[in-house]
Write a structure and sequence with these properties.
Layout (H helix, E strand, L loop, with lengths): L1 E9 L4 E9 L3 E6 L9 E4 L4 E4 L1 E6 L1 E2 L2 E2 L5 H11 L4 E8 L4 H15 L8 E2 L2 E7 L18 H6 L4 E6 L6 H11 L3 E4 L6 H10 L3 E2 L15 H8 L4 E5 L10 H8 L3 E4 L11 E5 L2 E6 L2 E4 L11 H10 L5 H6 L3 H6 L17 E4 L5 E6 L2 E5 L5
Parallel strand pairs: 1-4, 1-5, 6-9, 9-10, 9-11, 11-12, 12-13, 13-14, 14-15, 15-16
Antiparallel strand pairs: 1-2, 2-3, 5-20, 7-8, 17-18, 18-19, 20-21, 21-22
Helix pairs in contact: 5-6
This protein binds zinc ion.
Zinc ion binds next to loops.
């Protein structure tokens, strides 16, 4: 049995001081530090830093030069091993609107890595299929020629691996698709890349939409007489929302307001592309050229093409640009996405009987250590 001592333990509603956390693959107990006899455990000293739940990234396309849509198993492993250094312990590899064959090849590669039975890095929860059932009018960086009419059977066929998918509720066939997928599967239906008006967005929610793909980006804006998808997302208690908190996709002055409105339904994501963790330069996204400079990735026509954000940086950006407590900012990248994905019985917070997925970090989200299923998988400056 292992035990983390000398850490500030980040729970969903508070930070505990002078407590220790005992775990094997699962969290066994959280007890007053004075009750611990160091001789009984394999001790990990948090050196006064925070012990927080491992982060959950439900929307990430690429990292370290690799892209999920490549359909390359080795690429998935490189990504999984890379993001664990940013404190991510669970993730949803995310496909783009590429050809149906390429999407299915990507599903297969994720399925194979997930089911391989050996350690490969951050745990794969399942695929986030972003498209191909979107509106060309709000395609963003998605390739128009591969956009398809919404087809529930495609999602149902792959429900063993698809955890969530994006659909524009106003396009032909979308309402039937939303209804069927939400009735027949546990797949989370997300609304995004959409030109829906307020009423169409609300109709989608009524039929089963429960999540919003990167709130504000690639959707109808909030205007007082035409509240759009953003208005519907903020007004509804039934949908969680994704936020790319890189300070570029959405102005950071809104972070606190969004958090206040959505509360435990705010999920930080990265939407990171293959340029993440790489130097400035030219890359591709879904087969299209993009240029990375600093925190910005743009297509040739100036369209924003994903981000190079890491999830620990997203937590830092949210924390620094809002009045949220540190534990609340952490929950936006752990418990909230775990809840949205229906995985919160197992992961997302430091609670007894959940998986021992933990990070040791400071308030700047500089990750010192990442623990997955009770095993140390990253320790800053050390080769494991
Ligand atoms: Zn995306």
């Amino acid at each position: 049995m292992k035990c983390i001592v000398n850490g500030k333990i980040v729970l969903p509603n508070q930070v505990l001081e002078d407590y220790a956390i005992i775990f094997d693959q699962k969290i066994q107990s959280i007890v007053p530090a004075k009750e611990i006899d160091n001789a009984d455990y394999e001790i990990i000293d948090a050196k006064g830093k925070f012990v927080a739940p491992g982060l959950v990234d439900m929307h990430i396309h690429g990292y370290l030069g690799k892209d999920v849509s490549d359909g390359d198993e080795e690429g998935i492993r490189v990504m999984a091993a890379g993001i664990i250094q940013n404190g991510v312990t669970s993730w949803c590899p995310t496909t783009m609107t590429v050809s149906k064959q390429e999407i299915e090849a990507a599903f297969d590669s994720v399925r194979n890595v997930k089911n391989c039975g050996e350690y490969y890095g951050a745990r794969i929860l399942g695929v986030n299929s972003e498209g191909p059932f979107i509106n060309p009018a709000k395609k963003g960086a998605q390739a128009e020629e591969h956009i398809l009419r919404p087809d529930a059977d495609f999602i149902i066929k792959h429900k063993d691996i698809v955890k969530l998918f994006t659909v524009a509720p106003e396009v032909d066939g979308a309402v039937e698709c939303i209804e069927k997928v939400s009735q027949d599967t546990d797949v989370l239906v997300s609304m995004g890349h959409t030109n829906a008006g307020f009423d169409e967005a609300n109709a989608g929610i009524k039929k089963g939409v429960r999540h919003i793909t990167h709130l504000f980006n690639a959707m109808t804006a909030l205007s007082h007489r035409s509240p759009g998808v953003v208005g519907a997302a903020l007004a509804s208690n039934d949908v969680s929302v994704e936020l790319i908190a890189d300070t570029f996709h959405v102005n950071q002055g809104l972070f606190g307001l969004i958090a206040k409105i959505k509360g435990s339904k705010l999920c930080l994501i990265t939407d990171c592309i293959r340029a993440g963790g790489m130097p400035d330069g030219d890359y591709t996204l879904g087969g299209q050229p993009v240029h990375k400079e600093g925190i910005q990735c743009l297509m040739e026509d100036g369209t924003i093409a994903g981000s190079v954000l890491n999830l620990n940086q997203a937590v830092r950006n949210l924390y620094r640009n809002s009045a949220l407590e540190f534990y609340e900012a952490i929950a936006c990248a752990s418990l909230n996405p775990a809840k949205a994905l229906g995985s919160d019985k197992e992961i997302g917070s430091l609670e007894v009987d959940k998986r021992a997925d933990m990070i040791i970090t400071d308030e700047s989200m500089d990750i010192e250590m990442t623990i997955l299923d009770g095993e140390i998988r990253y320790s800053k400056g050390e080769v494991l």
